[in-house]
Each structure stands twice: as C-alpha cells, then as structure tokens.
Model the fold of this input.
Amino acid sequence: MFHSYLLILLLLSSFAIGQESKIEWSPNYQIQIDDFKPSRVDINQSITAISVSSGVMVDFAVQMSNIEFMFTKNFNAKLVCSFNKESASITAPDSLKAGKLLKLVQFDFDLSELYTRKMRKELFENKKMFSNVTFFQPYFDKMNAARNKISSEIYTASNFGENSTFLEKEHAAIKEEINLLSDFCKECKPPKKRK
Done:
C-alpha cells in the first residue's frame, strides 16, 4: 500500500515539475531573462558568437473516444502554445544584446500563438463528422512550416534583433493578427457558421 502511495506521489511530482518548466502563452505575459533556466543563459564579455533558442513549442493533445472525437469540432483547448524553459537558451556578450535576443524570443512566442490560432481555425473549419484523427497532420505541418519560414526570415532580416525598429514593426503586425483571430484563443468557443 505504501509503495502505491509513493508511486502516485512521484508521478504527481514529476507532472508538476514538467508543468513548471513551461509557460503557456498569454496576451499580457512578457518573457523575462528569469524565465530561462540559469544554466541555459550565458552572458559574458568573452562570447564572440551570439545564439538564441526560443524554446517555443506547440503541443497538440487529443485524448478522447471515437464517439467524442466524431462530435467534437472545437479543438482550441487541445492546441497549446508554450515557452519551454528546458529548451530555451541565450548566449550573448552583454545584457544589452541579451535584451535584444529576449525581444526576438517574445516575437517568436507571439508568432507561434498566431499560428496556433490559425491551426485552430483550420481544424474548426475543416473537421467533418467522420474525419479521423489523421486529418490534423496536414494542417499542423502546413502551419508549422509557414511559422518556421516567417520566424527564420525575421531573425535574419532583423539581424538577430539588432534592427529593433524593424522587429517592433513586424511584432506589432503579428499582435494585430492575433487579435483578429480572437475566436480561436485557447479558452474561446468559435461561433457556429450561419447557413
């Protein structure tokens, strides 16, 4: 009996630790340097090459019966955009450059939320009653490829955040697009199509 309780406690502890390493996207949350694990941040003058890994990911979890899946059209809560502390990193020669990289990470976080909302919209509009679980994959792949392309272009065009005016302009456009897809936030219920 004691072993069963210990096993349950260990499972709950590991789940809690896993959750602490992720920050879900929120419209008012700004990524801070403290959100990175200390071992994943290296800021010192001897660094000659900067690097950044945004640690942003989109998780898609569908756990439901076939009947439940058949009658489900809104998958907003099943797609989650998050910042993963375990995979995010910054390497910079000083705090000024680290701050610019941090703005790039925030851009990537918001860009990923935009494409998460676009995915939710595609799924909502294209899910049919007799669709099977594999119908998600093409939409996921298409949106992920588009997001990665834009992210790469912005990283390059902004010279890894050095061109802050350009980055701010692009970031403002992404935030505006997010607002236009307000029906596809994680907690939202999209309106039914009128016939």
